[in-house]
Here is the input.
Amino acid sequence: MNKSLVWSIALILVLVGGSYYIYQLNNKNVDGTREKIPATGNVVNGGCYAGGCSGQICSDQPDPMSTCEYKEEYACYKATTCERQSDGQCGWTDNEAFNTCIDAVLESGVNIK
Here is the structure.
């Protein structure tokens, strides 16, 4: 077998493995556990949709889209609900679990929004 072909295959395997490792690091909750982010476009409550690449958007539009960066605070949105708020707009409902999560992110020294 040609040496350049072997090296090319090895490089591809390293790149794929490294990409998967980085993906796994970026899909952890603040406490280190891994949970899947709900699929985009799911109707959550009152005609509101959770979505975006990291599950961080709450919108009245189906399949909300975003760029695919990841910030630690995005994991906190799993602790709250995307639903219609008192002002009639879709938004994340504040609760103790969400606030605790955001506080943990702040304490960790990770910059958020």
The chain has two helices and five strands. Residues 3-107 form one domain. The longest strand covers residues 42-45.
